[in-house]
Structure formats: structure tokens, C-alpha cells
Write a structure and sequence with these properties.
The complex is a heterotrimer. By secondary structure, chain A is of the alpha+beta class. Chain A is built from 9 helices and 7 strands. Chain A has a 5-stranded mixed β-sheet with strand order 2-1-5-3-4. A two-stranded antiparallel ribbon of chain A has the order 6-7. In chain A, helix 2 packs antiparallel against helix 7, helix 5 packs antiparallel against helix 7 and helix 5 crosses helix 9. In chain C, helix 8 packs antiparallel against helix 9. Chain C is globular. The chains are: A alpha+beta, B alpha+beta, C mainly alpha.
Chain lengths: 253, 646, 229
Amino acid sequence: MADKILKQIKVKVWRQKGPKTKGKFETYIVNDISTGTSFLEMMDILNDNLIREGKEPIAFDHDCREGICGVCSLYVNGRPHGPDDDVTTCQLHMRKFKDGETITIEPYRSKAFPIIKDLIVERNAFDRILQAGGYISINTGGVPDGNAIPVSYDDAEAAMDAASCIGCGACVAACKNASAMLFVSAKVSHLARLPQGKVEAARRAKSMVAKMDELGFGNCTNTGACEAECPKGISISNIAKLNREYLCAKIKD
Amino acid sequence: MTKIKTHIPEGPLADKWTKHKADLKVVSPANKRKLDIIVVGTGLAGASAASSFAEMGYNVLNFCYQDSPRRAHSIAAQGGINAAKNYQNDNDSVYRLFYDTIKGGDYRSREANVFRLAEVSGSIIDQSVAQGVPFAREYGGLLANRSFGGVLVSRTFYARGQTGQQLLLGAYGSLNRQVASGQVKMYYRHEMLDLVMIDGKARGIIVRDLATGEIKRFGAHAVVLATGGYGNVFFLSTNAMGSNGSAVWQAYKKGAYMSNPAFVQIHPTCIPVHGDQQSKLTLMSESLRNDGRVWVPKDKDTVEKLRKGTVKASQVPEEDRDYYLERRYPSYGNLVPRDVASRAAKERCDAGFGVNETGKAVFLDFKDAINRLGRHVVEARYGNLFQMYEKITDVNPYEEPMMIYPAIHYTMGGLWVDYNMMTNIPGLYAIGEANFSDHGANRLGASALMQGLADGYFVIPYTIGDYLADEIQVPRIDTNHKAFEETESAIKAKLEKLKNTKGKTPVDYFHKELGRIMWDKVGMSRNEKELKEAVEEIKKLEKEFWADVRIPGDLNELNQEIEKALRLADFFEMGELMALDALERNESCGGHFREESKTEEGEALRDDKNGAYVSAWEYKGEDADPEMNVEKLEFEFVTPTQRSYK
Amino acid sequence: MFMSSFMKSSIGRKVLVSLSGLFLMVFLLVHLAVNLTLIFDDTGDLFNQAAHFMATNPAIKIMEPALALGFVIHILYTIIVTVSNYMARPARYDKRNSKETGGWPSRNMFFLGSTILVFLVIHVWNFFWKMRVSGDPLLDHIMIDGEQMENSYNLVATLFKTSYIYSSIYILGVISLGLHLSHGFWSAFHTIGLNNDVWMPRLRNIAVVYAAIIAGGFIAIPVYFMIFF
């Protein structure tokens, strides 16, 4: 409760003017930060200082600031979303840091997530994977009543566990192979667990995996870094489920 | 009066929509292929409309300022979505949902619109289930429901505390399917900067590619705005940082009417502001008030000790606590509607009983619930919210009561639309939070999701055909038309002007100042004197902004400061109109509380004789005052009554 | 058509690594069973008979090239996967502190595998090559139960008894193998889809037990010779 003041922290941050320019680390000093301040508010303060000094502020993605939109993406002190568990960067607070500490902030690094500027990366690859089949092919209207097809409690819960993915890309950032398997598997497994999604499960698994491979993500080696760093705690059991769905689909080919 | 044409069909309430649909013109499949529709925004309303249009065969151009459609702020809605399914056999019906919504809105919305909303609510659930939205289920496999504030039945469908997320992901899935098929062209990180009009019709938009700074033109036969609300006028709100009213505002400046801008919902249970470094307020779900009790100390001594930290809240004895909601509203207690709960909290804090360092917080205490139900039950019900609270505040709410305070949450006001969701500009539509249509002066919980999806899935796909049927002869819009040219150069000039201001103060400073003025004078409690002051102060601040803002970086690159500056430039003007609208409305209703209009006990007092109207503000140019047109609200089917929660 | 697109896909490649790994794990159990005869009969007869059986039985003969192929596939596809993983992150992080639920071995499977490969080469050179191809004076033929066979026991036991360096290398190699298996075992099942929330902890525990049996069993042999001879 009682917030303390961090007298001084050093922020070592990746600066890169554009997608094609070479980047480098710069170190800035920020004074008098309350431990109750959120990490991104600290960034706001730093940016405010930079602008007043006539420098360019640090570009970083952020929007909802309540841990659900999935756009914040910083790699803080060697971990996506920083040194706290089950949070996104916007929910990270300065009480997780010590006075005088040097905080290293990097963009997510992966071939499939190119840097646009400073700490902002393009995660459009995720949209493209979902466009390959991360949906149930129905049109608006003409659907049965919501209660026409019962769904078991356990299936609904398991589907919800997988569906809580926010598409932030921390799994890719944390994975030593920059693999997107947790992301892909969460969607495949969410839909495959529901009767509505089972209909085209085989097609979905094949096309989403093919797209994932095409976009340059790495392969999963089951290290579990993704589930350890996932702000929503999505389990790698979903990856086993994806493997199963994919194998079954391919065997039928 | 004459300017306003609502196109509400005649006839009995329950038959209006059916009859209207039968009368609407339809475009043939062959002609749909020749028609382009621009949809701005990818939240519940935008994504559902874009995908539905594409499924019907229209060519859709869809824009979002975020890096992905899935980030739209609909994603943050927690509690649930209402639908008159009557699955619980508790005598729910379309009429009951209609009645609850119109009463909850304090009788400041249209009967016909609200009835239609209730009518299509059931289809939304069917649609979402078919899309794979993992709603909560009973053990028998059927859909579960829970209750929400202000109603007597159990009609809220939910997916844990992430209903908005799941519904949006459903709509986003449908959208993705259409993007893959090429029927929707998706533009990510593209923000609409202006509306292009040709011969009095909406024909296109000018956008800025936020990743490169490039200004681009897009033409279409119709433009649909699904850009959400303008709550960020207040700087601190539960909205996303990027949520803005600029698209709506550009439409207003091109002649679309702005309705009820003063109607803003203030949510009573948010985590309080902790200091001047705060950027955003986090909502704690309304459901917490089912088991939490709201209180402040009875005496200022205890308040002082709490602020200094010499006494913990849990140590304050029962007899020193003032459960003011239970005291003032014995029948509804802690479950009074949002506007009432918010005002009561403000009243206590203004009287000096606020419990944190800033004096702007009250307690929401679960001690009794934990004693009564056991910790595990409380944990099962609210575990994720408690965890979120602890992450943010570092206080364990199982041991110490939560601290909460009201915050800006939703804007009921928006672009004026007729029964077809079309603004007064032909070919320009507004859906979801961007329009004013369904919530009156106060929105009920779990109704925003319902409205966004109703508009996008089941209303506008039909109504837009009525307009487009007459457009089939119009060839694809040529973006070399001089209207595009002119609009684009105006935008470029505005950008240059901002960039070349060469001041020394960052955008956020001005935004925070604007927020302070708005919160203090156009916030929860308003009076004539302060509203007038607000108008003057905003004008002054706006001038300072244009003289002293500093925008580093270039225009032709990703530049977050110029994005913020453009949005803020519009917020100044919106804030002013909000104050003007609040000044015009002398009554208190819903979220709009005028200190001049209250009962002897200090409760809100509505004035149906003079207040039963929708304002429709018309832009009259840079230096002229806007003109307020009026749409009279007629109540044929319900009788407005004064709300009482005593 | 199926095979080519499957083997090019990320999951397909890993399924090959997984299946070949599972095959090699079965082999390891057989290998261990044979080798443990070294310490249960100091005359060496039991081991020699087992070795002779392994060298002459037609079924085993058929399995030998299959085993070689298993190694080749396992190594080849691991290299392919590892290279493509490396390419998936062209720019590395300055500081890395991510946790993983798989633990240290899961991050270092390629390193462990490479260590095992080096060991394997030495191991094959010392035993398999001599027994089957080049021959060695220590392998002088002996008669057991009226059958003539090579004295494999002599070759193996002599090396363990006389060379502490070799024994140490052997033990290090086997420790790498154990660590490799502690991840590889459950990971193999996971990759072919045979896992879920219920089986995850079970498989991980079985993996540790299996790895401990294999590593412990193999280490017991040089330790036995070093202590008792």
C-alpha cells in the first residue's frame, strides 16, 4: 500500500528509427518514480522528459492498459512483459524494481515480428495465421438456437482456457526458437473442443500450421517458456492437442 | 424539428421492425459486387458489420488504428451481454428487456430503437454460439446466465470476466474469414482523419497510415463509423489510451448532428487515482457490488488516521463505519444503479470522508461476504478481479477492503442517427457506441455489447441496402475527385501546422489539463456557473495548445505524438460541446446531474416536460456557435416515471 | 504427396524426431539389458553369449540398419529444425531471463544431443567397430557351451578396468544422455499428440524415472569395474 519512491533508475532501451535502419541501445535516467506507478506510466514520464529536452520520445505499443487488448509488447529485463508473473507489461508496476537498478527494455525479437520503430513490432503475422482458418465458417443469420447443441461444462471451460489468449506474442518472444505454436494451438484447441468448431477442425489445423510455417516462426521444442511467460497462463497441453489434430488431419490426406 | 427525420415506422411497437424490414429496398447480388462500403473501426459493431456486409457480397474496406482488429476496446468489456432468451424461465421477454433498458436510460431514448434492440438480442447469442464463443455452461450443457444491476431477471450471458473479449474474437473470426476471401480489405494501423463528401453524400475518407505517416484516400458508396465513444475527453477513463472521438468529430464538422454529448456514464467501481502520474483507470466489475459493502468512516478523525496510515481499514470498528449506500437507499442498498452509486461516492468524498491520500476513494468491503460465505466462495466468484486488484495496488482485498472511486466509462451520446442508423448525411452511418441511439441518459450493465452486435449483425446489414439500392448506377468512387484533393490538403495543412508549432510542452500535459477541467466542471455533478467556466477554460487551454505544443519527429514516419495531438485537438472542441449540451439540459437525468434540478433529499430530478428530447447539434463553422436541433421523444407505449431507489 | 508436405511442415519434422527418438529409447532399454550382464557374471560368459546373440540373430541383424537409420533421422531432422529455429530469430536479445517449465535440459537438447553424438562416435569406435569390423587382439575367440564366439567381455571389461579416462568420458556421456532423455521422453509423447493436462505431470515423472534407470544402469557398469577391479 504505502508506495515508496525510487530515487533513480536507469533505463537502457532499444532505439531504432525505422524498419530498415540500424538500432542501438540508449540509456536514460529517470528520477523519483513512485512504486505504485505502472511500468508504462514510467515510460510516459520518461517520454515527457525527452520531449521537453527536445529529443524524440520512445515509441512503444500500448492501448487498453488493463491487460486485455494484448498490444503492449515490451521485453523487460530479459522477459516478455517483464519481471512479474501472469501480467502484461501494462499491468507491471514499478514496485517490481529496485532503486538504482538498470532496466533493459528491448522489442520482441523474431523474424516474423519485424521492428517498425524503437520498441514497436509488427505482429500482423498473427492475424494472417488466424485468417488462414482460425474461425468457424458460418455467415451471419441462419444459425441454430444457442441451446440447440449442448456443450459439456468441461469442454466449455477448456475451450475458454484456450480462448483467453490475447494475441500479445509473448510466447513467440519468450521461446528460444521464436515459435508460435502456443498461439496457434490455443486457437485450434479452443475451436476443436466445441461441437461447432469440430466440423472443420482438420482443415483448420492444416491451414493454420502451413501459414505459421510460411511466416518464418521457429519450431516448438517443448521448452515451456511460452506457458511460463504467457500473461494468461495458457497451457502447452494445447500444443499436444494441436499436434494430435494436425497428425490426424494429415493421416487422412 | 423539420430537419429531423427519424424514419421510425408507424404501427404497434412489436411490429415496427418487421414492417420496416419488409419495406426496405434490397440490392441484388450482382449489384452488391459493384458497391463498396467503408467501415471504420473493428470493435463489436465494426467487425460484425464489416463481416456481415462482406458475406452479403459487398466489397468492404475496413480500418483500425490498432495493429490488429482484435485490439479494439470492446475487448475489455468484462461482465456480460444481455439477451431476452428467457432460458431461465423467469418470465423474461423482449418487452421486459425493452422496458428495463428504456427505464434504465431514464427515458431519454427512442422506444422503437430500444424495442428493436431487445427484439434481435436473442439472435446475437445464437450467432455468437455458432461462432464458437465459449459462453459459460451449466453441467447439462446449456447456456448459463447471471443477473446484473437494475433488473429482476437473469438474462446476462457471460464468458468468465472476458465476455467482451470472447464476443469480439468471434466477430474478428468472421472478419478474418472475409479478409482471407478478399471480400474485406483490412487496413491495420490506419486512422481516419477526415470524411470526404461529394454532392452532399459521404463518399470516402482520408486516412493516415500510422506506421509510415502516409496520407491515403479511400472512396466508397457508403461510410460506416463504428469508432466508439469519446470518454477520453476526460483523459483519465476506463477507455483505451487510443480511444478517440476524432472520426465522429470530423463527421460532425462535415454536417452530421451530434446528439446528447453531455450524456456520459461514470462507473462507480474503479481503482482510484493514485497520483498525478496516472494514465488510465481500471474498472472493477459491477458484479462486485453483489457481495461488497461500500463505506467510509463516520468521523474525520478516523479519516485522518487512514490517510496517514496509522490505522488500517480493517481495524476500524463497525460502529465507526458509515455504509452510506445502505443508509441512503435502504431498499436497493449497494446495488443502486451506476449513476446513483457514483454520485453518492462523490458526495461523501467532497464532504471530506475520502479514505486515501488524495481524499478520493471509498471502501468496498468483502469482510461480511467472506464471513458469511467463506473465502473460497468469494474467491470462486471474484478471484480474477481480486488478483487484478492486488497486482495494481499491492493490497490483498481478502484482508483489507478495496478502495474504489467513480471513473468515466462510456458515452451514451454520439452521432445522431435515424432508425436506419444513418446520420443526417446521406450514406454516412454510425453504429455501436459511436451513435447515440439506445441507452438514453444511462446505460445498463451488459447492454453495450448487445447494442454493438445488434447494430452490426442484424440492423445495418438490412438498412444499408435501402440506401445503396439507389446507388447501383454510381461507378466506383474516383479518389482523384477534387473533394478528395481538398479534404486531403486541409488535413495536410493541419498536420503541418501542428508540427510547426515549435512550442515546448508535450501533448499529454494539455490532455491532462483538459481532463481536469472536464472532470471538475463537466463531470459527475454540473451547474450552470461551472459549465460556463468550463467553456471558457477549455477555449483558453486550446489556444495555449496551438501555441505551445511540441511535436518531435517527422510526419512521414510512425509518430505517436502527432497521433495524440490530432485526437486532442478534437477533444478540446468536443469538451466544449459537451459543456454546451449540459448547459442546455437544465434537468437531471441518468448520468447527467444538474445541481439546479434535484429533490429536497438531493436526488436527481427529471423534467419530462422540457427534457424529453434528444439534442442534435449542428456545426456552423469555426467561429460560429453550433446550433441545437431537437428531436422530441414521444412515449406511446411506456409512461416515464421518476426513478426511486429508496 | 502426403509425406513430402508433412515432412516439410514444422510439426511433421518434429514428429520424425519424436518417433525416431522413441525408437532409440526402446533400443536403449535393450542395450542396457544386455550390458547389465557385464556386472552379473564376472566370468563374462553371460555377456559374451548375449553379445553373440545380438551379433548373429537374424531379427537383430535386420534391426541394425533400422537402428542406424533411426540415428540418422533423429540427428538429421534435429539439425534441420535447429537451423530453422536459429533463423527464426536473426537478432538476439541483449539480456535473456525467460523462465521455462521444461527446465534446463529442454533448452539445451541440441547441446546435449551433440555431446551424446561425440560420445557415441568414441563408443562405436571402441566397441562396435572392433567387434564387428576391425577386430581386436582382446577379442580372441573362446568356447562357451560348445559354441565359438568372440570374447567381447574381455574387450569391454579391460577398457573399463584400465582406463579411468575412458570410464569418465563414458560416465559424462551417459549423464548427458540421461538429461537428454529426461526431456526427450515426455517431449516425444507430447509431439505426437499423446499428452494433455492430466498426463503432463505423469509423463514428466515417468520421463525422470526412465532417464534415471537408463543413466543409472549404464553408469553402474564402469563404476562396478572401477570399484571392484
